[in-house]
């Protein structure tokens, strides 16, 4: 199932409506089910019933001819087998329809029916393995779910069902149109004999066996599905359909394709589904052979999503509009023929096996069709969405296994489920990952499974121990966060020895992740690359390597193989102008560039490291900070812009990013900076804040001069110990002339009891020169005669107080020439 619009709005609106008992209603309110009497305490559609009786086949014989009255009528023959001795009763789910009679062996049986559960007294007790059948005759108006998503729909020219109800408990919704065991574990074959008005076609699961023109001008369409499915995947769709026929070449032979649309839609359908065969090839390659006898879609006037009915997906007409805009939904629904249809979650609490894996299949489709970079883009966009909003929409960080009923079709299931699948691929590596998925699907096909089943099958197929992965990523909430704490490089005779300290933080997770294969990537000044793997098992880990070059750039998870709590973006810039790093929530405007520049910006969804100086009077953001790094050449000049937003009004744009920091006015909001994790945070001197209304908690901050390092938002609460130097002179320091020519004077006017370090960075944001100044030394004169013209940064740090100032200076030798 895929819901194009709920991700950003509709689903959360629905949950809010639930809390106020004011659900959005369909126009035909007479078709609504009773108010939540179908509670968990009373529900009879549970898995345990399938321990007693196995439903072998449903033969659904219905007349669906009058779209005005919306009445369906007919019977369902239920063939079943007893699993135990002494079974004397058959209980079937049937929702708000009229039962006319129940017949067994041509005898009418005693029944009890309360609009939800049909209890049938059998002729006599069955022995274990006995096979029998009953026929239930019924009629009525089938229900639409209270959420308006799920159930049976009529329009003047269409009738169709959606097999899942958002509000229904359980969500399975076969019971709205035929008597059944409405759970995930019961799988049966199906026969359909659907009678329609003249000129209408009924499309169902499986293969069309017969089409009969009846004497009363009606038509009967007979279908058979020989593969077993749970009840929520059974379907019918009726309209004046014209079939688009195609054939795909599958691993097990040719597979017929039937796309059911009205005549005016068929050209658009062909255009929008031009890449369906690519999805078919992708999933056979990645998951194994297609196990069904048909690929099918029926197009209906429902605009809020699609439903993965096996071999006959119910799909919105509006999504097949002649463009490729919605082809990810097309691919998502089709992938359910492996995830959800072939193997099905045993309970709704493990819905990620259906929907998270189908969502990840969208990305595999994109990867195969459009390439790896587009795949990574999808992965990053998804991760940003889940880190930003999912815990807010769904009452906190949640594990993807054990999801509560009200969030079965929410962001943790779809989006985090997708992110976890991507992380699992990163843990296992491509080869073992897809070998494991194929083995899992082959060994568990046509069964219901749990997350534990999936873990054990993957381990059995690959020999890997995945207990830690499933404990951390599947059975526990939140995300890990990985960052570099320090890098030490030492030159040897022929190589460079590097030592890395890596630290782990937690984003909504209860414990540090273990056995994490974290990739470390190094680049030199020529952008040569070397990568290695460190196995993380705790809060802090170390990594050592020998490189053939001097690394000037180091990053963790550079290729985004893991879904940690960082939204990162890397770009190669070649010209001046604006560059949006949207996943990193920052934009860069290049004012001067030499050759090309590589920039990587990370938006970290955890609190920045604490202040080293407890006397500093500002409060750091509790939930995010940035890291800017890369490789640039001297002469690179850029500014940057970030938006801050403390509003909590809608799940769009930048909302909720800073609501934990900005609880009042934003006039005391500042930007703080540190060059690396060894330094303390100081107020960044070169920013401009655009507030607008001081009370609206939203605005922007422009970094007039961008430096490599880390940035965070903070609230300034009184005088700062840090001197944020914005002019070249005050009572403590004097740096002159500025602009300078062949020399630069740095006066430390009150340096009576402090040793100081002076670092000068060039415009590439790397250390250019460094000096140590002993106490009582009042002045340092730096020769700049050989320095290229450009922008430099002077950073002065006192040893005792750890006070830091940062001053931008400009070197321009033409000034001396003019003198």
What features would you describe in this structure?
There is one protein chain. The chain has eleven helices and 46 strands. With 819 residues, it is an alpha+beta fold. The strands form eleven sheets. The chain has an eight-stranded mixed sheet with strand order 5-4-8-2-1-11-14-13, with no helix packed on it. Strands 28, 31, 32, 33, 35, 36 and 39 form a seven-stranded antiparallel sheet that branches. It has a five-stranded antiparallel sheet with strand order 29-30-34-38-37, with no helix packed on it. A hairpin with a 3-residue loop joins strand 6 (111-113) and strand 7 (117-126). Helix 3 runs parallel beside helix 4, helix 5 (352-370) packs across helix 7 (411-428) and helix 7 (411-428) crosses helix 8. It is elongated.
Summarize the structure.
This protein is an alpha+beta fold and 819 residues long.
């Amino acid at each position: 199932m895929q819901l194009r619009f709920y991700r950003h709005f509709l689903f959360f609106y629905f949950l809010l409506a639930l809390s106020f008992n004011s659900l959005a209603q369909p126009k035909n309110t007479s078709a609504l089910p009773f108010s939540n009497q179908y509670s968990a305490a009373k529900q009879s559609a549970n898995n345990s019933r399938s321990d007693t009786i196995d439903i072998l086949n449903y033969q659904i014989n219905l007349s669906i001819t009058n779209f005005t009255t919306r009445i369906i009528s007919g019977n369902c023959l239920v063939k079943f087998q007893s699993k135990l001795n002494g079974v004397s009763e058959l209980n079937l789910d049937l929702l708000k329809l009229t039962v006319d009679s129940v017949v067994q062996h041509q005898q009418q049986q005693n029944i009890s029916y309360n609009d939800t559960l049909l209890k049938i007294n059998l002729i006599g007790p069955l022995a274990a393995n006995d096979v029998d059948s009953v026929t239930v005759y019924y009629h009525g108006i089938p229900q639409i779910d209270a959420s308006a998503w799920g159930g049976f729909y009529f329009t003047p020219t269409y009738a169709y069902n959606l097999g899942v109800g958002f509000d229904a408990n359980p969500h399975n919704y076969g019971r709205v149109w035929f008597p059944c065991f409405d759970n995930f574990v019961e799988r049966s074959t199906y026969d359909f004999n659907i009678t329609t008005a003249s000129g209408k076609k009924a499309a169902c699961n499986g293969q069309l066996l017969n089409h009969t023109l009846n004497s009363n001008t009606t038509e009967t369409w007979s279908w058979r599905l020989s593969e077993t499915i749970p009840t929520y995947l059974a379907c019918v769709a009726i309209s004046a359909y014209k079939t688009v026929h195609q054939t795909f070449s599958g691993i097990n032979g040719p597979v017929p394709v039937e796309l059911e649309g009205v005549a005016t839609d068929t050209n658009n359908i062909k255009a929008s589904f031009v890449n369906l065969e690519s999805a078919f090839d992708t999933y056979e390659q990645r998951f194994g052979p297609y196990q069904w006898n048909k690929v099918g879609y029926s197009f209906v006037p429902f605009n809020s999503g699609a439903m993965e009915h096996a071999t006959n997906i119910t799909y919105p007409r509006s999504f097949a509009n002649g463009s490729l805009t919605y082809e990810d939904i097309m691919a998502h629904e089709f992938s359910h023929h492996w995830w959800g249809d072939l193997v099905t979650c045993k309970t709704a609490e493990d819905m990620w096996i259906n929907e998270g894996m189908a969502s990840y299949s969208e990305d595999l489709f994109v990867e195969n069709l459009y390439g790896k970079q587009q795949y990574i883009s999808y992965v990053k966009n998804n991760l940003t969405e889940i880190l930003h909003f999912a815990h807010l929409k769904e009452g906190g960080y949640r594990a993807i296994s054990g999801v509560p009923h009200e969030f079965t079709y929410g962001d943790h299931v779809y989006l985090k489920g997708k992110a976890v699948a991507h992380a699992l691929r990163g843990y296992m590596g491509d080869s073992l990952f897809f070998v494991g998925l194929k083995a899992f699907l082959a060994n568990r096909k046509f069964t219901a499974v749990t997350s534990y089943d999936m873990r054990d099958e993957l381990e059995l197929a690959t020999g890997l121990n995945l207990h830690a992965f499933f404990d951390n990523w599947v059975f526990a909430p939140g995300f890990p966060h990985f960052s570099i704490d320090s890098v030490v490089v030492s030159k040897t005779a022929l190589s460079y020895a590097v030592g890395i300290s890596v630290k782990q933080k937690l984003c909504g997770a209860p414990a540090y992740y273990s056995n994490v294969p974290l990739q470390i990537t190094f680049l030199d000044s020529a952008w040569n690359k070397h990568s290695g793997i460190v196995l993380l098992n705790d809060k802090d880990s170390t990594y050592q390597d020998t490189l053939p070059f001097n690394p000037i750039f180091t990053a963790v998870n550079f290729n985004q193989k893991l879904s940690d709590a960082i939204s990162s973006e890397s770009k190669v810039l070649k010209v001046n102008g604006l560059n949006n790093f949207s996943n990193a929530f920052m934009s860069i405007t290049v004012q001067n560039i030499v050759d090309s520049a590589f920039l990587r910006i990370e938006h970290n969804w955890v609190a920045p490291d604490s202040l080293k100086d407890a006397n500093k009077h500002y409060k750091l953001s509790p939930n995010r900070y940035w890291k800017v790094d890369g490789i640039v050449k001297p002469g690179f000049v850029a500014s940057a812009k970030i938006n801050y937003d403390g509003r909590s009004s809608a799940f769009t744009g930048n909302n909720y990013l800073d609501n934990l920091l900005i609880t009042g006015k934003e006039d005391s909001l500042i930007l703080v900076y540190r060059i690396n994790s060894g330094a303390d945070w100081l107020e960044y001197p070169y920013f401009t804040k655009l507030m607008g209304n001081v009370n609206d908690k939203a605005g922007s901050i422009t970094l007039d001069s961008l430096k490599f390092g880390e940035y965070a938002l903070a609230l300034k609460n009184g005088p700062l110990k840090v001197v944020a130097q914005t002019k070249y002179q005050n009572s403590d320091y004097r740096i002159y002339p500025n602009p300078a020519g062949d020399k630069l004077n740095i006066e430390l006017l009150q340096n009576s009891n402090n040793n100081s370090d002076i670092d000068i960075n060039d415009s590439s944001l790397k250390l250019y020169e460094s000096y140590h100044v002993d106490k009582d030394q009042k002045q340092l004169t730096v020769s700049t005669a050989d320095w290229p013209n450009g922008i430099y940064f002077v950073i002065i740090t006192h040893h005792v107080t750890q006070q830091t100032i940062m001053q931008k200076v400009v070197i321009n030798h033409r000034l001396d020439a003019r003198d």
